[in-house]
Amino acid sequence: MSLAPPEQGRRRMQMADIARLAGVSASTVSRALSGSPLIPEATRKRIAELASSLNYRVNVGAANLRRKDVHTVGVIILGDSMQSISDPFLLSILGTVADTLDERGMSLLLSRLKEGQPHQLPAFVESGQVAGLIVIGQLTWHEHLNRLAAQRMPMAVWGACLPDAMYPVVGGDNEQGGYLATRHLVERGCRRIAFFGDTTHPEAGLRHRGYQRALAEAGIPEDPRLQQSFLFGDVRIRQTIDAWLARDLHFDSIFASSDVTAISLMGALKERGIDVPGRIRIVGYDDIALAEHVHPSLTSIRQPTETAGKALVELLFESIAGQPPRAVTLPAQLIDRESSR
């Protein structure tokens, strides 16, 4: 009986096998074995030792043909026709992300994906265009993001810190923010508090939950007619105000789930001769730079975008290095200005 050569009759060890055993992505293994500075030294050493113990060898010739150190991060805006990349809050986060990446010698590739395009997310990394992804927003993609995390896709997400998230995520304390905004209006004597925001959106949904909690705490019954589930910046805001006035639907205040919506509401009310805050008090969300410069200046829930941008980059690099995902929840802070006084 003849003996087969050692390599015959058994499957050759693949990079994906090393990744699975090391608990990291295949791209992390590739970078670690090529000595990329993106991967911490301890992680590179651990992967190298594992590969050596399994007699895994990199095909240096092929690697040299295709290998290039990727110094670009993909920043993907998950949006829709109602929310533009030019949204002031998004621009504020993007600016900090760009500055933080620049400090690390990295650049960014900006793109936008709409509903129905989730399959395009992994293509950015798999094509070698980028080292990893920073995803802004969740829309209805939470489960898809979880599946990508299970496949070790290097990424970090800005959005709601959902309890079952398997991916690294940075987000504000949305429920507490909604509570603070609504409680503030209650403390100003308001009892007919309207809510504007798309409750199917994870972040706005949590803000609405905080709104409900503050109403319940104050013993104020909810009125479904005063809860408008619109996306950020929806043009139907003015139509809604007109319909409420036509039906003589009473409201004395509005909590809007974004500053852009709140500023649009102030404009719509002013056009109709309704004084803010004399007749209607308004609180927004995000505390964009414009909030303190409109008239009246806008009371808002501040989200620390500088901290958010830096945390997103930090979590992405942890993900690239194969570290376990974690969530960073940023505090919500009420900024009291003229629109609610």
Mean pLDDT comes to 85
How many runs of DSSP E, i.e. beta strands? 12
Number of domains: 3
Name of the top-level CATH class of the largest domain:
Alpha Beta
Class based on secondary structure composition and strand pairing: alpha/beta
CATH architecture of the largest domain: 3-Layer(aba) Sandwich
Strand order of the largest sheet: 2-1-3-4-5-11
Q: What does the radius of gyration come to?
A: 25 Å
CATH superfamily of the largest domain: Response regulator
CATH topology of the largest domain: Rossmann fold
- Note the beta-strand portion: 15-25%
Low-confidence stretches: 1-11, 59-68
Helix content: 25-40%
Shape: elongated
Total of DSSP H or I helical runs spanning 4+ residues: 12
**Quaternary:** single chain
Largest sheet: 6 strands, parallel
Q: First CA to last CA: what distance?
A: 93 Å
Structural account:
43% of the residues are buried. This protein has helices at 15-22, 26-33, 41-53, 60-66, 88-103, 121-126, 142-150, 174-187, 202-217, 237-246, 259-271, 305-320; strands spanning 72-78, 107-113, 133-136, 155-158, 169-172, 193-196, 227-228, 253-256, 281-286, 299-302, 327-330, 333-335. It has 341 residues and is α/β, with parallel strands linked by helices. The protein is built from twelve helices and twelve strands. It has three domains: 15-66, lambda repressor-like DNA-binding domains (434 Repressor (Amino-terminal Domain)); 72-171 and 306-329, Response regulator (Rossmann fold, 3-Layer(aba) Sandwich), CATH 3.40.50.2300; 174-304 and 335-340, 3-Layer(aba) Sandwich (Rossmann fold). The chain is elongated.
